[in-house]
Amino acid sequence: MEVNSFLKDCPPFDSLAEEQRSWAVSQMQSVYMNDQNCNDILKDMRPALFIVRSGAFDLRGSDGRLIERLESGDLFGYPSLLSGREVVNKLKAIEDGIVYVLPQSAFDRLRNVSKPFEQYFIRAHGQRLLTEQKSDDGTDNDWSEQTVGSVVSMPPVSLSSSTSVQEAAKLMASHGISSVLVVDDTQLVGILTDRDLRNRVVAEGLPLDVRVSAVMTQLPESVYENRSLMDALTTMTSSNVHHLPVVNDQNQPVGMVTATDLIRQQRSDPVFLISAIRKASSKSQLIEEAQKLPEYLQTFASRVKQTSVLGRLMASVTDGMTRQLIQLYEQENGAAPAAYSWLAFGSQGREDQTLSSDQDNGLLLSNGLSDKQKNWFAGLGDYVCEGLNECGIPSCPGNIMASNPECRGTIDQWKERFRGWIESPTPKALMYCQIFFDSRPVVGPGKFYQEYREQIASLAKNEMFLGNLAILVNRIAVPLGLFNRLRTEDTDDGDTIDIKRYGIALINDIARIYSLQAGITSPGTAARLNALKDSRLLNQRDNQSLLEAWEFLTQLRLNHQLKVWGSNKPKNAIDPDELSTLSRRQLKTAFKIIKEAQQGVGLKFSRQGY
């Protein structure tokens, strides 16, 4: 009884039902630890969850660094339970005490029967990783470069929606899995999990011959196989799911990824922040969590090799804020009255967002809406854009936001807008295209958006339109003078160069032109260049040079923004004199690559312009 009483006030055991907690107590051992025996006990009894009842202990890494001071009610041992990795940490007893030990088998059973119990350790593990500068093997945590498809280890186990729940349970038992995909005519229509069987079948007393379609989760969240692990993690935490179907470009299921799969990568850094955003129950709470982003990004920035990870992280967090604001709006105004997609444009759409990026978003709506339905979506645009601004994502100076009626529209309206811009490429029309072609859906059915995106992609192969885009790109002079000397602008902050306008944005523009010609619908610059590797439009040497220049400039901008953040200094303008000799040389090389790429675009496309 004494152990049970203690655990009632010890998270996450306090979230267990009384019978679950009593069972957990029956599985525990109580050990006395001091500085002489603590590491021997740790070695002999692991893998296990350890709960400090009394005393004080220092948990230290293999290199001796202090990870955490453990006192009454603190837990340790769970990272190895979640990931399966060997335990390398050591324990030092500061004050002798009693420790309860829960074996892995009991820990796994509690995770399976209690969602709050499992979620606690997923969040705790993510928060632990946030405090570590490197992983235990000494490598940087650039885990999110991996694609979702790279961690899918087996073909999908699926069944049709007409299958009985008894047959479904047999199938899941024979494969040793806790969820199964529901597929009709090669398309994903649902997912069935252990919890569905327990809560919707057994608890409701339904017969075993009831069809899966009656109890499954319909149209579940999914992720494309070529997306990053960060995207999968964002979707899971934002939607509060542990099983995520993986689909190909045809929306056909190719596998399943779980929260445990991601944690086993030992790279779950964004869990804590994104989870906190998802749990925000009010706009004020969401704003409070969002204010932590700059500090969090600075911590994370020192631990990754490629800045593209940071851009995706920032975009993922903004996506999470957007989804949560949409959910809060729906709680007040009811569910969406028609199918739609919330679109991210510009840097958020390309997933190269920074701390200084402003909003660029819009709404893609179903055709044939009534005035009442249009008013619902107008309210959604106002609410979300205002909320993002309060969360620290500034409103767009050019009003490219879903709160603007010109950035909302049905599928037919958007197609007509693009057709008008492409056939009459005025300077304003070209500016709109540079923004709106860099789009991706944040909320809404993937197929709904993809069909629309492919239709407008076919419009973009207009030769005169591409020629005018090429002319526009060549009107911006790269800041290189005679003998490849850097040309600076005299500003209040000294002699500086805007590396966004004269560098990063130009590479974005060049990659966009080639992608439009090739029919590539990916919005990201790096993704576009990678997709162009096998095309005849851009040879591999020039492709690789542009990608390397883009990566160098985005890294340079990130380092500068982190350095000046919190000050009034411009976030995209750098002083070349403050750079090292090597960085100045690399900057000159990057601008030279851009200048040559501009000339290449001009030769290939601008003959059709005017």
Automatic annotation (TrEMBL):
Record bears the keyword Repeat: yes
CDD domains, per database record: CAP_ED, CBS_pair_CAP-ED_NT_Pol-beta-like_DUF294_assoc, NT_GlnE_GlnD_like
Domain named Cyclic nucleotide-binding: residues: 12-110
InterPro entries hit by this protein: CBS_dom, CBS_dom_sf, CBS_domain-containing, cNMP-bd_dom, cNMP-bd_dom_sf, DUF294_put_nucleoTrafse_sb-bd, GlnD_Uridyltrans_N, RmlC-like_jellyroll
Record flagged with keyword Coiled coil: no
Sequence ranges assigned to domain CBS in this UniProt record: 152-208, 216-273
GO molecular function, one term: [protein-PII] uridylyltransferase activity
Keywords recorded for this protein, A-Z: CBS domain, Repeat
A Pfam family matched in the record: CBS
Protein name: DUF294 nucleotidyltransferase-like domain-containing protein
